């Protein structure tokens, strides 16, 4: 039961501000086999820490978003 609740709530806990800007950076990145998202640029644009930005992208990736992306700081 707890697993079902966690799976339902987890997507709601994602930082949508960070993910919206990250998606823009993802689309602007060279569409090689691993598009690169620059964490420092993301942090500057959102006002969030590098760790918050990284964690939001990693969690979104676990949910199937940002496939095959690479992070750079």
Write the layout of secondary structure elements.
Elements: H1 2-9, H2 16-28, E1 36-38, H3 39-46, H4 50-62, E2 70-72
Parallel strand pairs: 1-2
- State the helical fraction: 55-70%
Low-confidence stretches: none
The average pLDDT value, as a whole number, equals 83
Task: Give the CA-based shape.
Answer: globular
Number of helices: 4
Structural class: mainly alpha
Number of strands: 2
Q: What can be said about the biggest beta sheet?
A: 2 strands, parallel
Please report the distance between the alpha carbons of the first and last residues: 38 Å
Q: What is the C-alpha radius of gyration, as a whole number of Å?
A: 13 Å
Main-sheet strand order equals 1-2
Strand content range: 5-15%
Pattern of helices and strands: HHEHHE
How would you explain this protein's 3D organization?
There is one protein chain. The chain is built from 4 helices and 2 strands; from the N terminus they run H-H-E-H-H-E. The chain is mainly α and 73 residues long. Helix 2 crosses helix 3 and helix 3 packs across helix 4. The radius of gyration is 13 Å and the shape is globular. It starts with a helix and ends with a strand.
